Amino acid sequence: MSSIDPTRMRDLESAVRDHRAGRLREAVAAYESLLRRNPDDADLMQLLGVALGQRGDHEAGARFLARSLELKPDRPTVLLNLAHALRTLGREEEALRCCNRALALDPSLAGGYRTRAAALAALGRLQDALANYGQAVRLAPNDPSAHADLGVALDAVGRTADALSCFERAIALDPNIAAAHHNHAMLNARLGNQERALQSFDRAVALQPHHAALHNNRANTLKELGRLPEALKGYSLALAIEPGNPETLHNRAVVSSLLGDHTEALRDYDELLARGGEKAPDLIGRGAALVALKRNAEALAPLQRGTELLPNDAEGHTQYGVALLRLSRYAEALASFDRALALEPDQPEVLNNRSIALVALGRVEEALITLQGAIALSKESADTYTNLGLVYRALGRNYEAMASFRQTLARKPADPAASFALAFAHLTVGEFKEGWPLYESRFQEPTLAVPTRDFGVPRWNGVDSLVGKTLLVNAEQGLGDAIHFCRYLPPLAARGINIVFEVMPALKALLRTLPGSIQIIGRGERIPAADYHCPLLSLPLALGTDLATIPADVPYLATDAERTAKWAGRIQAIPGLRVGIAWQGNPTVEQLMWARGRSMPLVELAPLARIPGVSLISLQKGAGSEQIRDVPFSDRVLDLGAELDEGPDAFVDTAAVMAGLDLVISTDTSIAHLAGALARPAWIALPAAAEWRWLLERSDSPWYPTMRLFRQRRRGHWPSVVSAMVSALTPLASGHPR
Asked: Among 231, 528, 557, 725, which residue is least crowded by beta carbons within 10 Å?
């Protein structure tokens, strides 16, 4: 009999103590030292193999365990330890063979069935795995981990109720098994039992507070419960534990977007794309964040790539369509919305956006059908009713438009877009009493960008007496509006009211011709002391203007005598009937739905150029003037636009030229208003659904007595308008000396 080496025994006992205490580095060093003294000790090899595996060196651990088994083959526990090591290395088939050998040697090993079940599950043999987990529970009915593993297997084959029971049994046996709480929570969350899931997540997190996946999954449940700030905090905590985790970064970005913090969402999406390359959900999410931040041009590339990678994602096509819509690429936007709707047909918001693209493309009747479909799906969408009303207006159906805007206001009281649109409709049909109060919503209507300004004095409401006081009036909208409504100032000045009129610098010289003592200052100049103020387009409300009381005395503006004399000789030298023309308004304004279609291409005026005895003089400046060189009748148009002054004298020369013209023909532009304010003969070409100030059907204007209105009878059809003008102009030209 060989003697026992006391020193070896002491060293071995010390190594085992270190091992059991988790001092793995010390234990491994001690085992290796002992093994150098006893190189064929199978038990030492087993201990070293297990310790190495616990340190994460599974390859070396598996080698020592395999060598131990070569020396002493039939040891079930060592076989199972080797199976664990092999599973960690992804060598499931070898692990399965080890389990089979171990269980053949000792069929009572519950742990052997659990390890074999795990290998079978990894190999996709779910039913076999389930049978082995069941056997493990039968052998160890009070082992909570066995019940927890069986629950995972039952869930994998769709037996969710049985899985829940297993997780609950495991927790009953040992309330401190974090994995059982976690799995119980995940299964409840998947079943829609979010409150119950959250309770289990909370227990799991209390047991494993530094488990990143737990915090991520708990935050997912908070998100489903609508507790978004708490979800955001949970994702951030998970990322503090495991920075850069792509799933958690994506989840946090989604919740940041839902909370409206698109800048933070974009930061997470950028990190995701920098770390993980192109993943469609991240590309689409990044694009959506850029759309929300109104960085529409930047959004196109990620959204286009995202939808290429994930062509069946309706949200990606929707966001791409919104970006294109905002970039005025209407046909492409429409195609994107149609792709989104082909994937998910019942999307009211997408139908709403589709209608906007259709209107921009001139397909208003189709837009109406689209919006009616959107409302059939969701009768609570206030914005959809607004767009429906705008489409009704574009079709000239003003009373139906009013009903739609009221539907918006019933759902979203005081909504500025609906209030402003309703004002338009009332004013269009001549219902000024109803329209002027609603027109005040222009200061809140986001697409108009009319600033609300505080001048430090009370707003005049038309009630307080202003005799002997100073009223500051500011021109708050476009040039045409300022020319149109400055008519209100001379009658006020005649009452003994001191008027200070703040205007766009381009109008200073022109508006100094207003009669009466009116002080004209340019926007940006120092504003003198005043007692009250009133925005220019609020004067009709303050004064209670209706159709019968429109101040229509013209002219209320005058030409500059020196400029008129300067131009007189040149204008008088033009033969025949001298007709000034303007065809293009402000392109930026005409992006707005209510202003679309009010300009016409110059080429539409070709029939005028063919009338004998008519000389056309272009008054067009800026946008649209480039069309002259491209029309076939360019040689029949005298282009004065480039010679008309810009800056503070912008309209002074134009007014002087008009003084020598026989007629001004214009679309709805500031040129039209100037001609009317000067009491010059003017013919105005209007779209089928003209702006409110031109009212309905009338061929005259109560605002401008020297005007004649020519209206489209079919939306977008200018030839009929020009034809009517030709019929009216031809006899005038024939009777005019050439």
From this structure: 528
